[in-house]
Amino acid sequence: MIFWIIIILAFVTAAQLMKATLLAKKMANKKEEDISDADNNMNAFLLGLFAVFMLGQVVYMMFKYGNGLLPVAASEHGQQIDFLFNLNWIIVLAVFFIVNSALFAFAIKYRGKKGNKAYYFAHDNRLEMIWTIIPASALAVIIILGLRTWNDITSKPSDDTKIVEVYGEQFKWTVRYSGEDNKLGYADYKLVTGENPLGVVTPESMEGAIKSFDNDIRKLSYKLKQDSAQKEMYSHVKAHEMQSKMEKYGRIKERVFKMQKHYKSEQLIVANDDYISKLELHLIKDQEYQFIFRAKDVMHSAYFPHFRAQMNVVPGQRTKFKLKPIYTTQEMRDMTGNPDFNYVLLCNKICGEGHSNMKMIVVVDDSIEEFNKWKKENTSSPIAKK
Questions:
Q1: Secondary structure (DSSP) of 241-267
Q2: Contact 326/307 with Cβ under 8 angstroms?
Q3: With the C-alpha atoms ordered 106, 112, 113, 114, is the resulting torsion angle positive or negative?
């Protein structure tokens, strides 16, 4: 508080001094535009003080707050991402200090003096080459390294990679794990129901979807017949809406019929050992995972801040990336000195009024035994059993 009071008083003092200087000029019958060498020397001195203060504050802030708000990267690719961030900061800060130091130095050195005349030149090919080639080279290095890292994150997974699906909807996440076969069962939005929230393709889900559409079509058809017989009265807009909806259900039903013929029996049993979690996402340390992302309603963004990983979750499209955690939750708690620390999965797209609540706790277990214990007590089948 005292520091800021001193700063404010310093500015007030400077303003008063400037005002006194102007009054002194008027008393000496000098015009405001008459600038003496003494004035220029004073301005150069004050500019030098400001340069030292400003650049000094930047250095102070970097050392005091430079660690940021996140602990060390907790994934293999996260370390590469941090390296790229640090490289960018080195380039940005180097340019910042060089350019600003030169700006202040030249302003002070070439301050106004009587008898001096500015040198003017229209063009210099050598300077043009310097300030074109150097930034272009720096950008090329950043882009090439960034593309290599991105291609590695989204490239084909290794043979021992575990497959996990993250399904986003307003305003929650659902995680589906592949079973012993390490294959996720097929899914289709046309099969999404209350009992099958992820639209997993099984003989039962397809048959259930057909019966559900038949039931909806039957209800709508009955209402329209009642309207035609004038036993029920609906507006033209409402009647048209029901007719359109009935036709839509009929089209989707036909697609499900085709789906039944499309999938082979061996493809339909893939989902039998899948299991889901709605409360937590558990991973195993040093195990590589291939994440598959899907969205039910609007665009979301799966963001793992401590793993330095993020991917858009797009309706009607599957996106993916690889991730290998390298520190367990307990190890990170020890490293941060925070016994309540937890990894977290957030939505990083503003997806609606409940966006800020769309998060899931992520736990990195130390062994497969820990993971299996959690799995036994906290997961369920992706399709509700009647």
A1: HHHHHHHHHHHHHHHHHHHHHHS-HHH
A2: no
A3: positive
First-last CA distance in the chain: 66
**Backbone φ, ψ for residue 27 (5° rounding):** -65, -30
Write phi, then psi, for 122 (nearest 5 degrees): -85, -30
The answer to whether 157 and 290 are in contact (CB under 8 A) is yes
Architecture, CATH, for domain 272-378: Sandwich (2.60)
Pull the structure tokens for residue 252: 């989707």
pTM of the model: 0.77
The single residue listed with the structure tokens 């709605």 is 278
Residue written as token pair 């063009």? 123
The answer to whether 267 and 347 have CB atoms below 8 angstroms apart is no
Which tokens hold the place of 341? 């620390």
- Going by DSSP bridges, is the β-strand pair 319-323/289-295 parallel, antiparallel, or unpaired? antiparallel
- Alpha helix locations (H) across the chain? 2-27, 37-65, 76-109, 125-153, 203-228, 236-262, 265-268, 329-336, 368-378
| pLDDT in the model for residue 303 | 95
Indicate the length of the chain as a whole number. 386
Helix axes 203-228, 236-262, angle to 10 degrees: 160
**What is the domain partition of the chain in residue ranges?**
25-113, 202-262, 272-378
Tokens of 296: 């039910």
pLDDT, one tens digit per residue, over 328-371 is 999 999 999 999 999 999 999 999 999 999 999 999 999 999 99
User: CA–CA distance from 120 to each of 40, 117, 124, 256, 332 (Å)?
Assistant: 21, 9, 11, 77, 60
Give the residue among 190, 184, 199, 187 at the shortest CA–CA distance from 257: 190
Q: What angle do CA 60, 66, 68 make, to 5 degrees?
A: 145
